[in-house]
Amino acid sequence: MKPGVTGTAIAAIISVVIGVASAVYAMVSMHKLGKNKQKNTKQGNSIYDVNVQGNKVKLMERIPENFGFFKRYPDYLADRHVFYRNNTLFCDMILCQGIGYYDYKSDHSDIYIGETPVSELKGCSAYVIEPGVKITAENSPEDKSWYCWYSSTEVTRSGHTLKSGQGEIDTSSKDGVNLEFSGKTFSGFSYQSFSHGYGGCSGGGTDVHRIRKTFDLKWADGTIFELSGVTNTRRISTEIVSARSDEGITVIIVKKDALIQDFSYLRARQTEVQTSVDEEPGKETQTEVIVRNGDYVRVSLSAITSVTYDTIPSGSSGGKSVTEEESNDASALCEIQEITADGDNVTLKFDSSDLTVPAFPDTVEPSQPYTRITDTANRLAGSAFQPMPADYPYDDNGFYEIVSFRDGTYTVKRLNDSYSEIAEWLGFFSSGINQENTVFTLISGQASDGGYVGPYRACPYGAVSNIFELDFSLPSGLGKLNDDGDFEKLTITIQIEYRRAGSDDEYTVIEKSWTNSTNDQLAETIRLELDAADNYEFRVLRTSKEDGSTRALEEIKWTGLKSVISTIDRYDNMTVLICRFKGNETLSELSENQLATYWTRKLPALGYSDNQPLLPTRDIAPVVQYIVRKSKYRNILDVDTLMEFD
Fold this sequence. Notes:
- β33 (about 490-500) and β34 form a beta hairpin.
- The chain is mainly beta.
- Helices cover about 10% and strands about 45% of the residues.
- It is built from 4 helices and 41 strands.
C-alpha cells in the first residue's frame, strides 16, 4: 500500500463508486417511471409480423458501461431493417450491447425474446461482433446485412393502397365515354351495362340495365395535367334550316350550336378592289383581289326522301305502318365567302365548286307489299364543323390546372410550358365534339382516389444515399376466382419513379409487374442501387386496370420506403449483436416481448499491469480497478490491498 492510502480510504472510494452508480440507476428509473405513466395503450400487430420493438433507439446518447452478470436490453444502432424475400418477411436488427467485451454462449441460448431463448426459435439467428472485428458475410447473416437503414415515416407498414389508371387516362380505352368541351370547362359520361337474370314459368330470362356514370379523373383541385389527342374541331351546327345552290354559289342556313360563344374565328373571305391603268390607252382596270382567305368549315348535307305505307295483313296479325327513306349525300371542306348571323340562325355562303346541294331522290320504292302509301316527304339533314384555323392562338392540346370539379363538370385554367396561367385564354376551341381519343396525363398534384402515391423522401433531410428499398404487399393474394372455384391468373403493373428531392428533374421510371393465381398473401422488396448518391424522392403509380369484380383479388399496397444511411462495418469500442428473424407464427406470438441478453462483462484481471487478461467477472474489485484506471486517479490504489475486497 502506498503512503497515505489507508483501507478506510479504499473503502470510501468503493462506497463513492457504488453510491454514484446507485444514484444514476435511481434517476434513470424515476425518469422511466415518469414516461411510463404517460404511455398510450400499445396496439396489437397482425399475425406473422416481425415486430420486436421492445429495444430502443437512443441516438446521440452515451454508450453504456455494463458490469457483472445482468439482463440487458441492447439498444438499436439503426432502424430495424424489414424486408420481404420469397413472400416471407424478415427483420434484421443491429444492436449495441455496450462498451467492451462480454462472456456469452456460442449457441446463443443466453439471448432471449420474452422468456424463450433465440436458440429455440425456428428461423432466428444471432451473430456477436466483438470490438474492432470487421463485419463480413461470414460472421453476419449475409453480405451487407450490417448496413444501417432509415425507414421513411411517410410509407409505413399500414401501407398506401395503389389504385389504377389515374396517372394517365385515355378516354379511348374507356367503354363509350362521351367527353365534351365548352368554354373553360369539360365534362363526360359513359354507360355501364349489367345483366340481371330472373326466373319464371317459361324458364325466365335476362334484363339488361344501363347505369350512367359521370367521367371522373379523381384528381383534386389544383392538379396540373397535360391534355393530348384533342381533335381541335368545333361543332357549328347539326341542324340544317335550308340549303340551295344557284349561279355558282351555295347558301346554307343553319341553327348555331348553343356552345358557340365566339365568332371571331369564324370569318368570311376578305377582298379588296385594286385599280390599275394601262399606260398607252390610259384605260383604268379594276380587279377584286383576295386579301385573306375565309375560314374553312366541313359541311355534310343529306337530301332525304321518305315514304310511309301500310303493309298487307299477314295471318292473324294486321298490317302495320312502315316508313322507309333514301338519301343523296354530299360532304366537303368549304371556304366561307360570306357569313351573316340572325338570332340563332347563321347563313353561310360557299363556292359551288366546293359544295353543291344534292337533289332529293325521285322516289322511294317500298320494300314490302303494301295496301296504300300514306305519306311522302322531303327533308334536309346535315352538320357543319370547323377545324381550328391556322392563326388560332392556342392549341387545345397542352397544360391545364383544375380549378374545380362540381356536379360532374371540370373548370380549368390554361397554363404555358412553365405551368404559369395564360390569362388571355378564351377557352377550348373544340366545343361540342365527342372527344374519343383524348389522353389526360397527370403532371403534379394530389389524387383524390388513385393516381400517383407520393412523392416521398427516402432519406432524412441532409442525408444522401444510393441504395434504396421499396416494399409492396398484396394482402389478399392475386388472382380471380372462376365458376369452378379455381383461381385464374391476374396481372398487376406499377411504375416506380424517382428524382432528386425538391428538384424539377424528369422522373426516372421503372416498371414492375406481378402475375399470379393464388389467395395466399404475396409481398416483395425491390432494391435499387443507383450510380450517384443523393437525397431522392419516390412516387408510385399503378398502371394496370383494376378488374373491379368481387371475385378478383387485386389489392396492392406500398408498405415501405428505406435508404441506407451508413455502411460502417467495424465498431472499435463496443460489442455489437446482429440478429435476423424470419416472420413465422411462433415469433408473431412473441412480438410484444423485448430482446434481452444474459451476459457477463469481461474486465482485466486484478494486477499492476495494463495488459491483464480479460475475464468474465461479477466481483466488485475488478470494476473499481477498471473505473479508477480509466480516470485521472489511475495510481491511487494499491492492487494488493484491493485484492482483499475481491
